[in-house]
Design brief:
The chain has eight helices and ten strands. By secondary structure, it is of the alpha+beta class. Helix 1 runs antiparallel to helix 2 and helix 3 crosses helix 5.
């Protein structure tokens, strides 16, 4: 599936007006690269019926991609609140992961994991922006105009079409505060690997081979984050997006006995495939943040 279906607007509108299940399925096949479940039916119809440059989205699977703006990014910057909230509903999606056995690391050590839920996508700028508005938490430092000014620089919020990019410059402490606010937590290292590789010992969420760009790593040439949901062909066995590449993701698993450092998984856009696999991890101080560190939440 490509983000750019190269179809005229009239075709999209005609399918929407048709109203049949077959027409809606064709809409999903031609335009929708994000996670879908039946509960999203009305939300997806509303977004597909809104001019969000559905016909003008560049194909992002041919390196180098350059700057990418997705329809969800346009929706998050839309003047109508209903459209913005609908886009947030899509980004807030979670998937229930069944209990099972995950093979941890290159040694494939079997570990039992209980049932849990996890975010389909890494937490985005728009979601984090909503969070800091609600509780007054200080935003990531690159959102500030200068070190003496606590006003948000809107170049880094949902208002400039980057609302659906993963939020970055997030410490583990920031991530846990967000997770608590939405009645969640960070996934454990074992849960994260389970979501990424499923029941087997695959190296990447889609398998063991790199046959085409399926995630945002250095090979893609984006030189920045990309919108979540951009890589339909890179989803994990359970349906999670961006498990590798884009941003390193914090977990709640300590690296050291003192609990000063936390494990982060998955690599990022700054690293190549050698450091962006299902088994890739690094560790950082809990109060540390940088341009490739983000997170997703579990419940």
């Amino acid at each position: 599936m490509l983000l750019n279906p190269s179809k005229p607007k009239a075709s999209r509108i005609s399918l929407l007006q048709d109203g049949s299940q077959e027409a809606f399925k064709k809409l999903l096949d031609n335009y929708w690269s994000w996670y879908y479940e039946d509960a999203f039916y009305e939300a997806v119809k509303l977004l597909l019926n809104t001019d969000l440059e559905w016909e003008n989205v560049p194909q992002i699977t041919t390196p180098p991609v350059g700057e990418v703006v997705s329809p969800i990014g346009h929706a998050l910057a839309h003047p109508e609140e209903e459209i913005r909230n609908t886009a947030l509903q899509i980004l807030n999606a979670r998937i229930r992961i069944p209990k099972g056995t995950v093979l941890i690391g290159e040694e494939c050590t079997p570990i039992q994991v209980n049932e849990f839920e996890i975010s389909v996508y890494p937490i985005t700028n728009a979601q984090y922006y909503q969070f800091i508005q609600e509780i007054g938490h200080k935003p990531p430092k690159h959102w500030l105009k200068d070190t003496q000014d606590d006003n948000l620089d809107l170049d880094y919020t949902c208002y400039n079409l980057k609302g659906d990019h993963p939020v970055i410059w997030i410490s583990c402490e920031d991530a846990e505060l967000y997770a608590n606010h939405v009645n969640g937590r960070l996934p454990t290292f074992q849960e994260w690997q389970y979501c990424a590789r499923g029941f087997d010992d695959r190296l990447f969420p889609w398998g063991n081979e790199i046959d085409k760009p399926r995630c945002n790593t250095a090979e893609l040439g984006a030189e920045d984050t990309t919108p979540v949901g951009s890589f339909y062909d890179g989803i994990s066995p359970f349906g999670c997006y961006d498990m590798i590449g884009n941003v390193w993701e914090w977990t709640e698993t300590d690296y050291d006995d003192e609990g000063k450092f936390r494990v982060a998984c998955g690599g990022s856009w700054y690293y190549n495939h050698d450091y962006s696999t299902c088994t890739s991890y690094d560790f950082f101080s809990k109060d540390y943040s940088e341009f490739v560190l983000g997170f997703r939440i579990a419940v």
